[in-house]
Write a structure and sequence with these properties.
This protein is mostly helical. It folds into 2 domains: 11-101; 122-225, no CATH class. It is 67% helix and 6% strand. The longest helix has 34 residues, at 68-101.
Length: 232
């Protein structure tokens, strides 16, 4: 029997997995939030967080104060929740495996706040970033560059653009929140000092966006130079 060679994952394959994962996350969140809202009418108050909610739903499923119909629907919801959770865990492992084998992903993961998930999303979307002439061009493309407004002789910086790649923009903002926490512990580094100062000047929310912009530019530079990040 002729053996058919197994093709390795392409960038397009990984992009598809990221899209599937986003859909699974949205479905699971919507499913659990619906049950949270429905059971609120029965006097239930649930803690924040999907996993904590699942634990409380399993307890509610045994509550004799609820009708058999409602308890059965909770059971169906938890079966669907468990199925989606297993699917998400499988996708996490596949993406992590890809990031572990991909050289560009390894460079990106040396940046504080960027792990396998975000690294694989960046590389699968832009490769080495050849489509962009400068780091700022990539940041603009993600929508992380503030919009500049001018009137007469006065120029002001408004919020970030809603255009560009929304998925990468969201991931960079998520990474920035982790990086801000890292900076509180590693303030003696050049990047850590810059982050702490920007948070002090602009406040947390605007500071996080500024850090996300910085991470996008650093990511493009590392991909272009094929080298790891140096925090010192």
């Amino acid at each position: 029997m002729r053996m058919v060679p197994v093709k390795s994952e392409s960038q397009q394959d990984i992009q598809v997995l990221h899209r599937i994962r986003e859909r699974c996350v949205a479905t699971r969140t919507g499913l659990m939030n619906q049950m949270r809202g429905l059971l609120a009418d029965y006097g239930y108050s649930f803690p924040e967080g999907i996993e904590a909610l699942a634990v409380k739903l399993r307890e509610a499923m045994e509550d004799p104060a609820l009708s058999a119909i409602i308890r059965k629907e909770i059971e169906h919801t938890l079966v669907e929740y468990d199925s989606l959770s297993r699917r998400l865990e499988h996708l996490r492992k596949v993406l992590a495996d890809y990031a572990a084998k991909n050289e560009e992903c390894q460079y990106l993961q040396t940046i504080p706040g960027i792990g396998p998930h975000i690294a694989s999303a960046i590389v699968s979307t832009i490769g080495k970033g050849q489509a962009f002439a400068h780091a700022r061009d990539f940041a603009v493309w993600t929508g992380l560059t503030p919009v500049q407004k001018a009137s007469g002789h006065k120029s002001t910086m408004a919020g970030i653009s809603k255009r560009g790649n929304r998925y990468l923009r969201k991931l960079f903002v998520q990474a920035a929140r982790h990086t801000v926490r890292w900076a509180k512990r590693q303030g003696d580094t050049k990047l850590g000092n810059w982050i702490n100062q920007i948070i002090l000047r602009r406040g947390l929310q605007k500071g996080v966006v500024a850090v996300a912009h910085k991470l996008a530019r650093i990511s493009w530079i590392l991909l272009q130079k094929s080298e790891a990040f140096k925090a010192a």
